[in-house]
Amino acid sequence: MTYEECIQACIDCMEACNRCYDACLKEENVKMMVECIRTDRECADICALAIKSMQSNSPFAAQICKLCAEICEACGNECKKHDHQHCQECAEACYRCAEACRSMAK
Amino acid sequence: MTYEECIQACIDCMEACNRCYDACLKEENVKMMVECIRTDRECADICALAIKSMQSNSPFAAQICKLCAEICEACGNECKKHDHQHCQECAEACYRCAEACRSMAK
Amino acid sequence: MTYEECIQACIDCMEACNRCYDACLKEENVKMMVECIRTDRECADICALAIKSMQSNSPFAAQICKLCAEICEACGNECKKHDHQHCQECAEACYRCAEACRSMAK
Amino acid sequence: MTYEECIQACIDCMEACNRCYDACLKEENVKMMVECIRTDRECADICALAIKSMQSNSPFAAQICKLCAEICEACGNECKKHDHQHCQECAEACYRCAEACRSMAK
């Protein structure tokens, strides 16, 4: 795992979460998507912070990636529950990012 | 209008938007709150950026405050439509912040 | 320690870090302030995220506060080294915030 | 200009600014880089917000892109002054992003 690969995983996950957030808000049954909306937002935000920390060589990059991995994992678990394509795609991006961030955090 | 007053208005508005966002997601009729959820998030984020820019003496503080005023105004207009107390309170905080940011932007 | 007190400690710390960042960039001897500039930025950003997470009832608020405590502690240690008033004041705000976030994270 | 192209220009610019910020802080003559450090930070932050707004279909995406274009332009002008490769590369990324955001803002 290189720094570059982890940054790319975070960029992909941030995009998937932002798109899933938007798509969830447009779903007919929004009520069912409430937790997904919430975790999508949290996950996109921590990914953005992880990207910034890696790109700017933050002394806290490893710790931020560790937290990012935890939130990505949780967001993936939430998205996984829903059949919408945007949720399934988001879950995959979250799991990939969680794995990348975990190995970066070591 | 001093810098300090505008920062405080942004802090108050950010708080109101974050709380309204959370409360909207918990409302029985979430469907009705979708635009409010969206604008609350946008408004809290631009207020956070405006606070940072003013506190750190950003050369772009005036331009950021100008945009913040526009988003606060729009968020206030959206919140205003809903009778929930958190929406009404948020609308007031948004309008106060919009006014503060407008005069700061000049 | 209530949620409100921890949010306030983060708001105070964010402000101190943003002001210290700006003041450090204006110091005659900037070279000496490089690490302080860096940690001030990191600390202000994680405080902003912690505030958002607590105000919006994030399911990750405790984990974000835990990381915030670590970064505040490190920023306090860096600021403490410098005699400038803005650094000393920032160190104090960082330590207070670290303590508040640590007890919130439990 | 598609949405996708503008998002990519912002991602590239954010990366260039974050790397330039880090590299500037490591320069022997930091004193000379102070304004560059400052605008790099501002520019990376507004690019991050523009990315989020476009990816999540924000009703304020156009306005945020307009501001992003202004800050990118100013950051490009600052970076352009310095001969370091990271500054020259950042200036180019800033100008490309400014152009992309301007056409998006229309």
Key descriptive features of the protein:
homotetramer, mainly alpha, Substrate Binding Domain Of Dnak, Chain:A, Domain 2, 82% helix
Helix residue percentage of chain A: over 70%
Report the CATH architecture of chain A: Up-down Bundle
CATH class membership of chain A: Mainly Alpha
Radius of gyration of chain A: 13 Å
Percentage of β-strand residues of chain A: under 5%
Number of domains of chain A: 1
Estimate the global geometry of chain A from the Cα principal axes. Answer: elongated
Which ranges of chain A are low-confidence, i.e. pLDDT below 50, for 5 or more consecutive residues? none
CATH topology of chain A: Substrate Binding Domain Of Dnak, Chain:A, Domain 2
Count of alpha/pi helices of chain A: 4
Mean pLDDT of chain A: 97
- Please give the largest β-sheet of chain A: none
What can you tell me about this protein's structure?
The structure is a homotetramer of 106-residue chains. Chain A has 4 helices and no strands. Chain A is mainly α and 106 residues long. The first copy, chain A, has one domain (3-105): Substrate Binding Domain Of Dnak, Chain:A, Domain 2 (Up-down Bundle), CATH 1.20.1270.360. In chain A, helix 1 (3-26) runs antiparallel to helix 2 and helix 3 (61-80) runs antiparallel to helix 4 (85-105). Chains in contact: A-B, A-C, A-D, B-C, B-D, C-D. The A-C interface holds A 38-39, 42, 45-46, 49, 52-53, 58-60, 63-64, 67, 70-71, 74 and C 38-39, 42, 45-46, 49, 52-53, 58-60, 63-64, 67, 70-71, 74.
Brief summary of the model shown:
The structure is a homotetramer of 106-residue chains. By secondary structure, chain A is mainly α.
